[in-house]
Design goal:
About 20% of the residues lie in helices and about 30% in strands. It has a 5-stranded antiparallel sheet, covered by helices on one side. β3 and β4 form a beta hairpin. The longest helix has 20 residues.
Length: about 90
C-alpha cells in the first residue's frame, strides 16, 4: 500500500539556536546548536513505538539529511502491514 508522507519543511524557532522540521502540521524534528555541534531530536516513534534517539552532527546539513532518512524509514513502516496473527483492523 503506497503511503505519502509530507517532505520536511524547516522553520526557525523563537529560540535562535533551534529550528523545527515540520511534516505537515506535525513538529517531527528539531535541530539545536550546542557549541560547534548540532543535535537532531526526532519526535517520531520508531517501529517499536519509541522515539528515535537524538544524534549529534558537526554540520546542520548532515542532521537534516539524517532527518530525511528517518522520514523515509517512517514512510516505509507506515506502508508495511502489521504481521501479527492477532492483528485486525479496528
Amino acid at each position: 500500500m503506497p503511503v505519502t508522507v509530507p517532505l520536511i519543511a524547516w522553520h526557525p524557532s523563537r529560540y535562535p539556536e533551534i529550528e523545527y522540521g515540520m511534516m505537515g502540521s506535525i513538529k517531527a524534528f528539531s535541530i539545536g546548536k550546542d557549541g560547534s555541534k548540532y543535535r537532531l531530536d526526532p519526535h517520531l516513534p520508531n517501529e517499536k513505538g519509541l522515539r528515535y534517539e537524538s544524534q549529534e552532527f558537526r554540520d546542520p546539513q548532515k542532521a537534516r539529511e539524517r532527518a530525511d532518512e528517518i522520514r523515509e524509514e517512517w514512510r516505509k513502516a507506515l506502508a508495511t502491514p502489521y504481521g501479527s496473527p492477532q492483528s485486525r483492523a479496528s
